[in-house]
Design a protein that fits this description.
With about 100 residues, the chain is an alpha+beta fold. It folds into two domains: about 1-35, no CATH class; about 40-90, no CATH class. The protein has helices at about 15-25, 65-70, and strands at about 5-10, 30-35. It has a two-stranded parallel ribbon with strand order 1-2. It is globular and about 35 Å long. The model has no long low-confidence stretch (mean pLDDT about 75).
Amino acid sequence: MNYDADVIVIGAGGGGAVVAKELGEKGLKVLILEAGPWYGNSKWPEPNAEPGEKSSSSIEDLDLQILKECFTDLENDMNSMINGKFRWGPADRNRRP
């Protein structure tokens, strides 16, 4: 892949995503690098069960149904050891968050 970015943001957590949005709105080309799983991508349908290193920059690969299966709005589901939904940290469940 070849990207021409004005700014590289490391991490798409709460702060990284906001910084990327604000810089993008100012007209800068922003590249976000994120090590965690990407929910809702048809090329990586089970991000918590498979190792990462899969990428896509195509909007056609986004899948709302996969996102809904992985994401939860319930606070008690966060970081659950049982269902693994929306877990912070590496996709490899054997590694620490």
